[in-house]
Amino acid sequence: MNANAAEFVPGQGADKAGEAPGPRRQAAPQLSEAMRSMPTYAKKDWIIGGIRHNTVTVISGDTGCGKSTLIPQFVCDAENLVADDKVVVCTQPRRVAAITLAEYVARDRGQELGDEVGYQIRFINKFGENTRLIYATTAIVLRRLHSEPTLDSIGCLIIDEVHERDVYTDFLLLLIKEAMLNGRMSHLKIVLMSATLNAEDFASYFLKVNGSTGLKPIHVPGRMYEVDDWYWEDACEAVNWCPPEKGGGGKGKGKFGGDRDRDFGGRDFGGK
Questions:
Q1: Which range marks the domain in which residue 250 is found?
Q2: An example Gene Ontology cellular component term from the record (predicted)?
């Protein structure tokens, strides 16, 4: 580990790094029945084996199959997969997702948030010296690359929701691939997770990084809950409500011709 590289802690403010002791491994807690009932759990050994034997692993699975909650835990709890002095970071495009996932996983493991599982978003760090799993926004990891170009303090970087193709995620993938091809991140494991079946595209993008081992995506079939498509008319009928007649509209008006706060039958939903 680079002695001059700061740990994954921004210290004062969002963009500055401070020093923190490395995490200490704790005994892996027993996963709850809810976690073990998720489709991803059935692929546990297959997923751990794929990550262990490949530099880059691509995993696809339907929304709600348990990718974001279970796979980071698999990596943390697997023996000799990530060094004890390094952390596992799972990126999320949105700060709300980073917070709620960290809270859910910590609660399910019977731990305090900020102990073994924490999160990092702009201006807020919720983790300590024993934290091994950090949910962070993609922008935070990009800033981390600026201060620690080889990400020495991270043992496994899990990039979630890659199918959304937001600018931060695309830029992060570009920088990671370039660094790996140049041999600057030989210690790092990369896991790409997608909720769509375009995983082959990401596998092709990182094919040269894996070299002779190739890169075959792992697909997790099934989902926890059925997802139905509901359209505007269906929703209105289900709640027995009809929108107001369309008016003249104009500047400051909603699409039904009324004030923005009255567009939905006079209901004020508060905020944007």
A1: 228-272
A2: nucleus
